[in-house]
UniProtKB/TrEMBL annotation, chain A:
MF-aspect GO terms: 4 iron, 4 sulfur cluster binding; metal ion binding; NADH dehydrogenase (ubiquinone) activity; oxidoreductase activity; quinone binding
Protein name: NADH-quinone oxidoreductase subunit B
Gene3D superfamilies per record: 3.40.50.12280
Alphabetized UniProt keyword annotations: 4Fe-4S, Electron transport, Iron, Iron-sulfur, Metal-binding, NAD, Oxidoreductase, Transport
Family, per entry: Belongs to the complex I 20 kDa subunit family.
Coiled coil: none
One Gene Ontology cellular component annotation held by this UniProt entry: respiratory chain complex I
Limits of the NADH:ubiquinone oxidoreductase-like 20kDa subunit domain: 64-174
Automatic annotation (TrEMBL), chain B:
Protein name: NADH-quinone oxidoreductase subunit D
Annotated organism of origin: Halosegnis rubeus
Residue ranges occupied by any NADH-quinone oxidoreductase subunit D domain in the UniProt entry: 309-559
Residue intervals of the NADH:ubiquinone oxidoreductase 30kDa subunit domain: 46-163
GO CC list: plasma membrane
PANTHER family reported for this sequence: NADH DEHYDROGENASE [UBIQUINONE] IRON-SULFUR PROTEIN 2, MITOCHONDRIAL (PTHR11993:SF10), NADH-UBIQUINONE OXIDOREDUCTASE 49 KDA SUBUNIT (PTHR11993)
Length: 229, 559
């Protein structure tokens, strides 16, 4: 950018900012733009960048991994450095849910409910082996074999428990992906869809489908058929 | 009960100066005792299923067994069995078991709820997992598994492959009923959890409010029931069980829990532990206790002040130091898996001097840090307003619910297994059991903070000992057979002082290298049971404070 007013000591930037705005409003980012107050970008790109740069986490603890998650939020590791460390207690204010622990049959529907309450777009970080496959408790009669049986997971952080550094890395990776507009097309289908989903849409199927009351959906844990068994 | 005043020299029936006189107990029980068994820890009397209450009442009132520490249920080929493990708060080395067999086709026995309130939840668990039913039980429902569960998973013929159904409707909106309820109703139903910042995990409290006061509160647990007992029953004694205790009480209390298993298995199979290893165990266990109590204080402050404030961050900072030390020692930050049957996994990290120096540094800084905590918490007026005289739990109630650990000690019950039933190196060291008489939330926090100091004392003495230990006597592991097969039908109940209280393990061997029954007596399970007693009639914020001061960890409540 060329300066058109070389005689005055004022910089172009200052001139454009006008009177009354003091330098406190200047940011590193503003400075990086140089004299031009405009940027040209795609709106989607911009939104993705914004999204990835400021994520609100759900304050959500399940099991042992949540202790390391607290350490990740706490001093020393301080996830907030990366713009992703404000735990919100309400799912309606959160963008990201870190699933830190073992999911059992009694908790799975509740977790799904919490997930459903989060506004779109929402992201899931699976923390620990338990959310991958049931981890050390995989053989338990009551243990869901991975978070993906209940909700879709964007990033898996393996470990039992993962070190805070690993979780930071996982979250940073997620931010990177979000900023790039990549999203993992993971879907979790309820039991009924899994059972009837691939049938031809004939009369009988229609009839059966009509019988499904969405409010009465059933979660069925078929331990023998579980994918990770 | 003469036991209330330890100063009275008179002994209970069946008590001698050396311990329990089981013959006297047998004659006390008279015809209630239809048999007698020998467990490793104590003798046990067999009682008819319809005379449980009478027998237990006798033992409690006449013989002074005021602590029902655990109820174990199990199924044999030919019968069901419930075992009540009784002890005395004054002297936990005095133990007796009450075995109640029931037939296969009609597994019903009398509930002990009338005698020991703690039996309430224990029996519900027995019903849930094993399938024994209890007569006269106030509320015999499933406790850990969903209501819709098919079968009893720890019974012999359970089919783990069968699909289980959990209806959405059941979990959909627990408030719906309340909304639909009579608009004239005076009370309001408030649902806290299972996802709620104040419940320290996945606990569900069904609260009935009358205005701002709590009319009733019922804890709904089981959201983290990870089948720990089943998994331990499927693991071999020697190596496969040890990683799991770390995950019961996962707030850095790993080594304390591992010790519970190590102690039970070592006593069962008669394994010695070298003295040097005992000192290391003692030191590392107390490190865990400090880390655990720090988090308890941090989250309690979080509950009281309602945000991630300085106290939380300070505690995190100090825990990081502790975790670094433990990582140097064990190789992991949280799931240590450091103890082995007959010793520990490896010696102190080299260079030893550096480890000692770092430990000493921490201990030197600790008083100053605790001072900061006291400035911000215990001497803070707002905090005192919230905690003094709220959540009162009187000692008798605490005992009847089987409360242990800081919860009991905060109610003036002087009960600490480290001192009363010594293990490890504790009885050689100089430290005190902390008790407070306030019985309220404040006392419980104070007990924890003061216990940190005592633990620091213990660690310091251990470091001194380890530093001087002659190099050629640093034996960390005794000889233990590769496969451990305790004799069939050996039964043992052993406990240690975990971070939250008496952590006990019951094991029965069947001659193979895996336990036939593995039962965990979790302190939090019993402590959490006292919540309604503490919070009924109090304001709802006090309920939250009481819950925080109980310092439960759901991994241990649900197991
Ligand atoms: S992965 Fe390991 S540490 Fe994490 S919740 Fe599961 S058992 Fe606990």
């Amino acid at each position: 950018m060329s300066s058109d007013n070389t005689n005055t000591p004022q910089t172009t930037q200052e001139a454009r900012m006008g009177e009354g705005v003091d330098s406190r409003f200047n940011s590193t980012l503003r400075e990086a733009f140089g004299s031009s107050p405009f940027i040209l970008t795609k709106f989607d790109k911009f939104m993705n960048w914004v999204r990835g740069s400021s994520m609100f986490m759900l304050q959500f603890g399940i099991a042992c991994c949540s202790i390391e998650m607290m350490h990740t939020y706490g001093v020393k590791h301080d996830l907030d450095r990366f713009g992703a460390g404000v735990p919100r207690a309400s799912p309606r204010q959160a963008d990201v849910i870190i699933v830190p622990g073992t999911i059992v049959s009694k908790f799975a529907p509740r977790m799904k409910r919490v997930y459903d309450q989060m506004p779109e777009p929402k992201f899931v970080v699976g923390m620990g082996s338990c959310t991958i496959s049931g981890g050390p408790f995989q053989e338990g009669y009551n243990v869901i074999k991975g978070a993906e049986e209940v909700i879709p997971v964007d990033i898996h952080v393996p470990g039992c428990p993962p070190r805070p550094e690993a979780l930071v890395y996982g979250v940073a990776k997620l931010q990177e992906r979000i900023a790039n507009g990549e999203s993992a097309p993971v879907t979790v289908s309820p039991y009924e869809l899994e059972q009837f989903g691939d049938l031809d849409d004939d009369e009988l199927v229609q009839h059966l489908a009509d019988q499904i009351d969405e409010d009465e959906l059933v979660m069925r844990y078929d331990w023998a058929e579980s994918p990770s068994q | 009960m003469s036991l209330e005043e330890p100063s009275t020299p008179e002994l209970d029936t069946g008590e001698t100066l050396e311990g329990v006189d089981y013959d006297a107990l047998e004659s006390l029980l008279g015809e209630y005792a239809i048999g007698r068994e020998s467990h490793v820890n104590a003798e046990a009397f067999v009682v008819r299923p319809d005379e449980v209450q009478a027998a237990l009442e006798l033992l409690r009132d006449e013989a002074g067994f005021d602590h029902c520490s655990c109820v174990t249920a199990q199924e044999y080929e030919d019968r069901y069995e419930s075992i009540y493990h009784l002890r005395k708060y004054d002297d936990p080395t005095q133990e007796v078991g009450v075995v109640v067999p029931t037939t296969k086709d009609d597994p019903v026995s009398e509930s002990a709820n009338e005698v020991y309130r703690t039996a309430d939840w224990h029996e519900r668990e027995a019903y849930d997992l094993v399938g024994i039913e209890y007569d006269d039980h106030p509320d015999l429902r499933r406790i850990l598994l969903p209501e819709t569960w098919q079968g009893h998973p720890l019974s012999l013929d359970y089919d783990q492959e069968q699909p289980q159904v959990v209806e959405f409707a059941e979990h959909a909106n627990p408030l719906r009923e309340d909304h639909a309820a009579d608009a004239q109703s005076d009370t309001m139903f408030l649902n806290i959890g299972p996802h709620h910042p104040a419940t320290h995990g996945v606990l569900h409290l069904k609260t009935t409010l009358d205005g701002e006061t709590v009319a009733d509160v019922e804890s709904d647990i089981g959201y983290l029931h990870r089948c720990e007992e089943q998994i331990c029953q499927n693991g071999t004694y020697r190596h496969q069980i040890m990683p799991y205790p770390d995950r019961w009480d996962y707030i850095s209390a790993g080594i304390l829990n591992e010790w519970a298993y190590a102690r039970a298995a070592e006593d069962m199979a008669d394994i010695d532990v070298p003295e040097y290893a005992q000192v290391i165990r003692t030191m590392s266990a107390e490190m865990c206790r400090i880390a655990s109590h720090m988090l308890a204080v941090a989250t309690f402050a979080l509950d009281i002040y309602g945000d991630f404030t300085a106290i939380f961050m300070y505690a995190m900072r100090d825990r990081e130091v502790m975790q670094n030390l433990l990582e140097d020692l064990t190789g992991q930050r949280l799931m240590f898996n450091y103890l082995r049957l007959g010793g520990v996994a490896w010696d102190l990290p080299e260079p030893r001097e550096e480890f000692f120096e770092q430990t000493r540094d921490f201990l030197d800084e600790l008083p100053g840090k605790l001072e900061e905590f006291h400035d911000m918490i215990t001497s803070n007026e707002i905090f005192q307003l919230r905690c003094v005289n709220t959540g009162v739990l009187d000692p008798e109630t605490a005992k009847s619910y089987g409360a242990t650990g800081p919860v009991a000690r905060g109610s003036g019950v002087d009960y600490d297994i480290r001192r009363d039933d010594p293990y490890g190196y504790y009885d050689e060291l100089d430290w005190d059991v902390v008790t407070e008489d306030g019985c309220d939330n404040y006392s419980r926090v104070l007990v924890r903070m003061r216990e940190v100091e005592e633990s620091a004392k213990i660690i310091e003495q251990c470091v001194d000992l380890l530093e001087e230990w002659p190099e050629d006597e640093r034996n960390i592991q005794s000889n233990v057979p590769r496969t451990l097969k305790p004799d069939a039908d050996t039964e043992i109940y052993r406990s240690v002082e975990g971070a939250k209280g008496e952590l006990g393990i019951y094991m029965r061997a069947d001659g193979t290298d895996k336990p036939a029954r593995f039962k965990i007596r979790s302190p939090c399970f019993s402590n959490l049971q006292t919540l309604p007693e503490m919070s009924q009639g109090e304001y709802i914020p006090d309920l939250i404070a009481s819950l925080g001061s109980l310092d439960i960890v759901l991994g241990e409540v649900d197991r």
